[in-house]
Amino acid sequence: MAVLLLFWSATAAALLGGEPDSDERYAAVIALGDGRRLHCSATKIGDDRFLTAAHCVADTSKGGLDDAFRPGRRLFLSNRVSPVPSGDLLAVTVREVRLHASYLEALRRFYRYKEDKIRDFRERYSGEDLARRIRVVERDALFTSRFPDLAILRVREPTPGIPILPVDCGPLHAGDRVEIVGYGYESLQGMALARRMRPYGRRNRGFTRVIRVDPVNFYSYAGELHSGSPSLSPGDSGGPVLRDGRVVGVNGTVYGLSRLDMARSNMSVNLNGLTGDTGLGCREFFGLPSDPGSGGRHSGE
User: Fold this and answer.
1) CATH number of the domain residue 266 falls in
2) Where are the beta strands (DSSP E) in the chain?
3) Residue 297, pLDDT above cutoff 60
4) Which of 34, 93, 194, 207 is the most exposed place for a label (fewest CB within 10 A)?
């Protein structure tokens, strides 16, 4: 089973099998929410830019942005290790949200497909049978595994207290050691209590290795396949995957997540694969200079 790792109106609290970022090594990684609870994780990659997952900001029921992420809307963020809503949240205003063009087109196609299916269902079914079929269609949003599931959130207010992590457009390879960071659940046991204790979660990190890489995503070992490896959990969506302290991917989906607090593998967006493996599409998307001599590694500024 594949699980998208966001919560907006549900619960969210850190990485399964990770450890707290107690020395604040990754203070550029933030918790993003609505003021009461965590929505997703994100990374500051520029003065006014935060990188997160597209499914964190999109609304499949409308074929576009979630209303909460439209320009002018207010969001709350924090780079504290364990944010307290009453004092650690910084209010920001959305300036712009940018999705990758192929993801946006897929989102719109999915919306049209879904609307056609629901229209057909309404003509043929009724009552609970109709409601059940609509629920199935509404949940069927796994096109996110076939298109770059990432978004750049630009905000109006300065956030000088949050450092910037550089983006690395260089290629990944099977066996590469990477580090996953996020504010998701530390355990799937007692989730209601975790929500009350840490409504914005706690920033955790954990090392793993890449299993394989494809043009859109790469896959890393989780705890079930490799003991001690971290498994993504709800709330980790949008957080970074790092190689040598640089962002090479974005947390998106976990496979085989179980109540044993582990999964089989983690799927993350492959930044290098954006429109080709040369890194050029990555540099264009992030507005970075083209510099073949740098091996694809660039600052996020």
Assistant:
1) 2.40.10
2) 2-4, 19-20, 29-33, 38-46, 49-52, 58-59, 64-65, 74-78, 90-99, 151-155, 177-182, 204-213, 217-221, 240-243, 246-255, 265-270
3) no
4) 93
For residue 14, give the 3-state DSSP assignment.
Answer: coil
- Taking only the tens place, the pLDDT of each residue in 155-201 is 999 999 999 999 999 999 999 999 999 999 888 887 777 777 888 99
Q: What are phi and psi of 156, to 5 degrees?
A: -85, -35
* Nearest-angstrom CA–CA distance, 162 and 248: 19
- Domain assignment of residue 240, yes or no: yes
Structural domains in the chain (count): 1
Model confidence pLDDT, tens digit, residues 212-236: 999 999 999 999 999 999 999 889 9
- Domain with 273, as residue range(s), is 177-294
Strand partners, 96: 154
Q: Judge contact between 285 and 274, C-beta under 8 A.
A: yes
Q: Give domain status of residue 300, yes or no.
A: no
Buried b / exposed e over 20-32, threshold 16 CB at 10 Å, is ebeeeebbbbbbb
Q: What does the pLDDT look like over 5-24, one tens digit per residue?
A: 544 333 333 478 899 999 99
3-state secondary structure (DSSP) of residue 258: strand
Q: What is the pLDDT of residues 141-168, one digit of tens each?
A: 667 788 999 999 999 999 999 999 999 9
One-letter amino acid identity for 117? Answer: K
Q: How far, rounded to the nearest angstrom, does the alpha carbon of residue 203 sit from its chain's CA centroid?
A: 14
